[in-house]
Amino acid sequence: MPTDDRIGFKLELTLCDRTIEAEVPIPNQSMRVADLLPVLLSFDNAVVGMAADKSESEGLKISCREGCGACCRQLVPISDAEAVYLAELVAALPPERQARVRERFREALAALGESLVERLRDTSEFKDLAQRRELGEEYFRRGVACPFLEEERCTIYPHRPMTCREYLVTSPAENCQKPSPETVRPVPIPIKLSQILYQFGDGVGNQPTRWIPLVLALEFTGEQRCFPAPEMFKNFVSRIRG
C-alpha cells in the first residue's frame, strides 16, 4: 500500500472524562474496510483503555491477566471485515504453522457439533438479547477454545477482534469459569466500536447489523467492496461521536 499519499486527520474525542488527541494519516485511495482495520483497532484500544483507567480510578481493579483464557471459550462475534482480516492473517503464516492453525479451526468446529455449527452459520435469527445469550451459553458449555489460543495465551493478541478488546472484567477471575450476569462484572465501555463495525460493511455505517462467529472466520467468502479511505474514516469517526 502506498505511504507517500496520505491525508492527516486531527482527532479530538472525549469519553469517560478523558480526551483522545491524535493525528491520523489515512491513505488517499480506495480500500476495503479490512484494510482500514489496523487504524480502527488502535482507536478501540484507546477507548477501552480510558474505560479501564476510569474503573481502576474508582477502585475496581481489572482482573484480566495474561494466561487466563476463560473468556477465550466464549462465542466471539466478529464483523465481516475482521473475518477477512483474520483469514488473510492465517494465510500469511509460514506453511507449517498455518496448517496447525487451520487444523485447530477444524477441530473446534468438530467439537462444537454439526447442529450448533449450522445454527452459527446463520446468526440473523438471533435478533434479541435473550436469543443471543442462549446461543452464547450453549457455545460456552461445549468448552471449545478459540483456535488462536495456545497454552492459555492469545497468539494473535495485537490483531485480536474488537469484541475481545472490549471484554474486561473487575470481578474475580475464577468467576469467568462459570460466567453469568450475577457473577461477572464487565468494565463499562462508553461506546463499543465493535457495534459500529458490525454495521460498517457499506463504508458508512448504515447497513443492518451483521456478525459471524470467529470460529467460522476462515469460511467467510463475502464480497469486500472498496471505498475512498479518507471518507470511510470520517464516517467511522462520526459514528463514534454519535
Query: What class would the helix/strand composition place it in?
Result: alpha+beta
Q: Please indicate the count of domains.
A: 1
Q: What oligomeric assembly is this protein in? A: single chain
SSE run: EEEHEHHHHEEHHEEH
Q: What's the N-to-C terminus distance?
A: 30 Å
Task: Strand order, main sheet: write it out.
Answer: 1-2
Roughly how much helix do the residues carry, as a percent range? 40-55%
Q: Please tell me what the overall shape is.
A: globular
Q: What's the total number of strands? A: 8
Largest sheet: 2 strands, antiparallel
* Overall pLDDT confidence: 90
Write the layout of secondary structure elements.
Blueprint: E1 6-15, E2 18-27, E3 30-31, H1 33-57, E4 77-78, H2 80-91, H3 95-112, H4 114-120, H5 129-141, E5 149-150, E6 153-154, H6 162-165, H7 193-197, E7 212-213, E8 227-228, H8 229-241
Antiparallel strand pairs: 1-2, 3-8, 4-7, 5-6
Helix pairs in contact: 1-2
Question: Brief description of this entry?
Answer:
This protein is of the alpha+beta class and 242 residues long.
Describe the model.
The chain is α+β, with helices and mostly antiparallel strands and 242 residues long. The protein is built from eight helices and eight strands, in the order βββαβααααββααββα. A two-stranded antiparallel sheet has the order 1-2. Strands 3-8 form a two-stranded antiparallel sheet. A two-stranded antiparallel sheet has the order 4-7. Helix 1 (33-57) packs across helix 2. The longest helix is centred in the first third of the chain and has 25 residues, at 33-57. The mean pLDDT is 90.
